[in-house]
From TrEMBL:
SMART domains, A to Z: AAA
Keywords: ATP-binding, Nucleotide-binding, Transport
Any one GO MF annotation of this record: ATP hydrolysis activity
Superkingdom in the source lineage: Bacteria
Record domain ABC transporter: where: 5-236
Protein species of origin: uncultured Thiotrichaceae bacterium
Protein name according to UniProt: ABC transporter
Amino acid sequence: MSKALSISGLHKTYGNGVQAVKGIDLDIEEGDFFALLGANGAGKSTTINIICSLTNKSEGEIKIFDHDLVSDMELAKAKIGLVPQEFNFNIFEPIREIIINQGGYYGIPRDVCTERANDLLKALGLWDKRHEQARNLSGGMKRRLMIARALVHNPRLLILDEPTAGVDIEIRRSMWEFIKKINAAGTTIILTTHYLEEAEKLCRNIAIIDKGEIIEHTSMKELLSRLDTETIVMNTKDPVKKLPVSEDFVVSKVDETTLEVTMHQSRSLNVIFHHFSKHNIRVSSIQNRSNRLEQLFMKLVDNNKNKGDTT
Ligand code: ADP
């Protein structure tokens, strides 16, 4: 299978000195439904804007279906459809015209664009509104218009930058049904989001970006499997000199009298108590830590922060 996107050594420093992207390497397979997850300011939009030639990179190489974004720009760009965060169409233009005119930028004949626009308007539930000016659409409809416009030239890679911000649940659901359908038909999808739940439900693979660096790149399944473990914080009566080692759980020291113990959820706490008592560790209190994806995300970001502190 070919790669939809290949990024190597990508750097971006803005004119004001902000290093928004610091050496990103990322490969996304054709047909993937991929999440680029990160907190606000992590570098998601900068990365997407570089891929879509809206911002210049400082360093690095990008290939879209093997077309180099610099030396083979036209072909590379024709393969990408972008749904940006902000509505950026002419609000006084009828919506079918907006879609058709976008096709013109890619040199597609008007009759071909019209047919394609008709199909997209129907598929996205906007057919009845086709002659309306964009300003008369609801927020959810405007979002769907953005998707239709991004797809008019039949891109093989669709990038959605925070697509559900401000979209209500019902519209969100139907929007995702549509996106899932085109993914099943072969279009590669990249979704940037800070909604973990959305990424969890939809995406097969995931990269987490923090302060311009990829700190995790794995399958959603693998990431979620880590949630089968539970972390418990234990306070001990006396300072712990030597950490107990066990095959059943992993212990790390927070401070002299605080331990973090991670074990599979199916295991009983008694296993820990039994082992601790053998090592003369007396527990004074325990706190259960929840095991949501959110926590895993925070932990990954925290680890990255600590790494940054020591270097
Ligand atoms: P995200 O999309 O993950 O919220 P961005 O890529 O927008 O993150 O921003 C990454 C960093 O780059 C932030 O510190 C942001 O303030 C900075 N930044 C983004 N755009 C610009 C710009 N045009 N000029 C200067 N700094 C920018």
